[in-house]
Amino acid sequence: MGRARKSSTKRATLADVAKVANVSAITVSRVINQPGKVSPELGQRVQEAIDMLGYIPNQSASSLASARSGVIGVSIPSLSNVVFNDVLRGIYDVAGASDYKVLLVDTHYSPLEEEKMVRTLLSQSPEAMIITGGDQTRACERMLAKAGMPVVQIMELLEQPLDMNVGFSHYQAGYDVALKMLATGCNQLGFVGARMDARVQQRMAGFVDALRAKNKLNQEYIVTTPEPSSIALGGELFRSLLSASSGAVDGIFCCNDDLALGALFESQRMNIKIPTEMSLCGFNDFETSAYVNPSLSSVHVPRYEMGVKAAEMIINVLNDKGVADKTLDIGFEVILRQSSRASVPPQ
Amino acid sequence: MGRARKSSTKRATLADVAKVANVSAITVSRVINQPGKVSPELGQRVQEAIDMLGYIPNQSASSLASARSGVIGVSIPSLSNVVFNDVLRGIYDVAGASDYKVLLVDTHYSPLEEEKMVRTLLSQSPEAMIITGGDQTRACERMLAKAGMPVVQIMELLEQPLDMNVGFSHYQAGYDVALKMLATGCNQLGFVGARMDARVQQRMAGFVDALRAKNKLNQEYIVTTPEPSSIALGGELFRSLLSASSGAVDGIFCCNDDLALGALFESQRMNIKIPTEMSLCGFNDFETSAYVNPSLSSVHVPRYEMGVKAAEMIINVLNDKGVADKTLDIGFEVILRQSSRASVPPQ
DNA sequence: TTGTACGCGTTATCAA
DNA sequence: TTGATAACGCGTACAA
């Protein structure tokens, strides 16, 4: 409405700065993007004009003109799941160090929502994408392929990655847990899983296959629910499994530490002795797991490193440095603690 | 290098779609943004062309031309601190429902880094900003003011908000905790704090002032460190405080649940009885706190709601609906559990 | 080292 | 209802 007044009316542009500094717009652009190519005197003058006007570059215009957005798109299935915090931190640390912005979306574990979110991300013209897992819709895969940008799929190892891949074998982890629990004297092993996304299913498959191989599989000891994990749910599922097995189960692999902690706390309330009457193993190795009493066995995953590696792969590709391997197995480690029998193996 | 081939070469544009559908570019734009203003036949034809080409709008061009980016900038001090997860979830839920994208940055609890990050955010031409707390640099405040967009400061109640504000009084929370702990029979209260950002300092100030008012303040029972919080650190600080007070302390307020859980686990290992020999109270009310044995007293904060409200305020302002109050006190609740004496008040 | 001309892909404005 | 034209703010290519 009213007349234009002072500076606060509209955002300053390159042209405004140029006018004040009495140079051309492109020179201002250079001062910002290639300071070495401008003479010190001019650079100084321009910088003063920039400060005076409080000039902030318009990234939309820059992206449009240069086809470089400086954005990395990241898609994760859940903002509440703490597991992704560490991964994100790794991504942000590396991306930020190279002046890349991160655009983050949450798919709520839904491939359809992921497809929509990926479309949203692509409309921002990111230079690369980091997405979770391999459960994309066909349409989503097509979009990604068409976009022709570096893509890293994280969290799990995939048979056929779209492009690059950083993760570990959830199947193998589940398998190893079963063997370790058997080795520590468990005889009637059960499984408790929630949400049951692709990775949890892999963990379960590995666990089940190992038990089957050892002739220790009892399907009634496998309890799952599509509900999201929580400590409260862990307690409930623990009770379910106990009653389903008439108390025969002497060891439980919980698909994550939330459930496992819930089971542990519930067992304490039920006066079930850990680990003598019941062994427990979780997944993800939260800090709590190492400090709770009794401490909780779990599968440690280098999440921060996973984020770092994924981002580094991308930065390298964007800088034309290429990557040694398109797929990186970041590994895992089964850590036995007091919730397992014989947590210290004999010498 | 090689010849252009097929579709995968370059991203389709509005003009490409227009050509295929045999209409003008602006018509395609309308099909996308104002479907009602285009005849059904044309709309159909255009939609087919869009699908055939896999057209995805270029948001940079759209932002530039329309001065609407559809982006909300969000700045938080830490990606690893679980506290912000719930807030973010609230923000993302509301923003997503209104088709806004969220650009998230992490300031690592540094006002200087925040200033840099806010500049980055502003360069993306967001339509509004959500930032944490009130510790901005002068330069940061100036940028924000100049940008002239809705800004919500979250997490704490501020004396002089830049614009809008959603939070609660950390000072009052600390004060209330002290009174409640005294009321449950604690006589020698201590405080354990880490990181010591503005909000933690407020909690401490409230706690200390309450003790002083009751003539119960002993400065030697106040233990702080700039280190980031962790469960491990909670155990260490617990021991520090015990030795600093020669074991006299009979109740501790930890500035967050990480520290409090660490203290609780450590006390178990030291065979100190909770709550008879030692009362414990944390802050933030993690799910773990309600289920650990003994359950941990804490201060519950409606974090998700805080994110929701902040985002709603912004959406309302952007839609010219205005907001009733620029400042919203979201409140808190001190929850006494088994780690406090007399956790159930007498009838 | 500095500047000119043009185009990036979209939308606002106005006209048909 | 549809379209032509001119911005939006910046960087590339080229020229001086």
Q: What can you see in these coordinates?
A:
The structure is a homodimer of 347-residue chains. Chain A has 347 residues and is α/β, with parallel strands linked by helices. Chain A folds into three domains: 56 residues, Orthogonal Bundle (434 Repressor (Amino-terminal Domain)); 127 residues, Rossmann fold (3-Layer(aba) Sandwich); 131 residues, 3-Layer(aba) Sandwich (Rossmann fold), CATH 3.40.50. Chain A is 45% helix and 16% strand. In chain A, the strands form three sheets. A six-stranded parallel β-sheet of chain A has the order 2-1-3-4-5-11, with helices on both faces. In chain A, α11 links the parallel β8 and β9. In chain A, α5 runs parallel beside α13 and α8 packs across α9. The longest helix of chain A is centred in the middle third of the chain and has 16 residues.
User: Can you tell me the CATH superfamily of the largest domain in chain A?
Assistant: Response regulator
* Average residue-wise pLDDT of chain A: 94
Number of DSSP E strands of chain A? 12
Instruction: State the CATH topology of the largest domain in chain A.
Output: Rossmann fold
Summary?
Two copies of one chain form a homodimer. Chain A is built from 13 helices and twelve strands. Chain A is α/β, with parallel strands linked by helices.
What's the layout of helices and strands?
2 copies of one chain form a homodimer.
Chain A: H1 14-21, H2 25-33, H3 40-53, H4 59-66, E1 71-76, H5 83-97, E2 101-106, H6 111-123, E3 128-132, H7 138-147, E4 151-156, E5 164-168, H8 170-183, E6 189-194, H9 198-213, E7 222-225, H10 231-244, E8 251-254, H11 257-269, E9 279-281, H12 287-291, E10 298-300, H13 303-318, E11 327-329, E12 333-335
Parallel strand pairs in A: 1-2, 1-3, 3-4, 4-5, 5-11, 6-7, 6-8, 8-9
Antiparallel strand pairs in A: 10-12
Chain A binds a DNA duplex (16 and 16 nucleotides) through helix 2 and helix 4.
